[in-house]
Request: fold
Amino acid sequence: MITIEPDTYFEDGIVITDYKDILIDLDVIKRSFNKRRTIANDKESLVLLKVNALSSLGQEVQDFIISDEVIKHTKAVAIVPTSKAAAIISNTFLSSSSSPYPIQVFKEIENAKDWLNSIG
Reply:
C-alpha cells in the first residue's frame, strides 16, 4: 500500500500544508499534524491549509482538531479550498462548530497569509 503525504513546509512564519488531491481523513490529519509539530519545533504555530479533496469531517476528525494536543500547538488556522466541493465542506464545518483557536476560510492564499500574520 502506498501512502501519499501532503506537502508540509515552513514559509514566512507560517506552517503550510498542501493536501493536493489527497482525500483527507483522520489518519491523514494526524500524520500532517505530527509533521507540523516537527517543523514548528513542537511550538504553537500559525497554520495555512490548502485543501482540495475533503471527505466529510466526521466526529472523530472534529474531536481531534479540538483536542488539547492540537490546541496547544495551534495559534490560528487559515483554510484555502482549491475546489468548490472543498469550499462548501470547509464553510459548512466552520458554521457548525466552534473552534478554540481562530480559524477562517479564504479564497486567496495571500489574504490567508495576511490574516495569519495579523494574528502572529
Strands lie at 7-11, 14-18, 45-51, 74-81, 103-105. DSSP finds five helices and five strands in the chain. The mean pLDDT is 88. The two ends are 39 Å apart (CA to CA).
